[in-house]
């Protein structure tokens, strides 16, 4: 069977570049996680205007589904960029 890709090792790109890419990816995932949560809070601005209470936006709690979705999306996007 013919190989489509050659073998890839850490030594080809260097240890520093490999591990710094992982650290940068984790940093991007934290940033994306915060941005996605802020965006989700701002999407509910209509409810805040209807109730005339800004305390709802501050005390907004995320469901487990949204936390999981935001977590996987932020990790996926961050490692796509690195």
Can you tag this structure with a few keywords?
elongated, 0% strand, 5 helices, mainly alpha, 82 residues
Give a verbal description of the structure.
There is one protein chain. The chain is an all-alpha fold. It has one domain (18-81). Helices cover 76% and strands 0% of the residues. It contains 5 helices and no strands. Helix 2 packs across helix 5 (64-81). The chain is elongated and about 65 Å long.
Largest sheet features: none
Distance between the termini: 31 Å
**Strand segment count:** 0
Our Rg estimate from Cα atoms comes to 20 Å
Give the strand content. under 5%
The assigned structural class equals mainly alpha
Q: Which runs of at least 5 residues are low in confidence (pLDDT < 50)?
A: none
- Backbone shape: elongated
Task: Provide a compact summary of the structure.
By secondary structure, the chain is an all-alpha fold. Helices cover 76% and strands 0% of the residues.
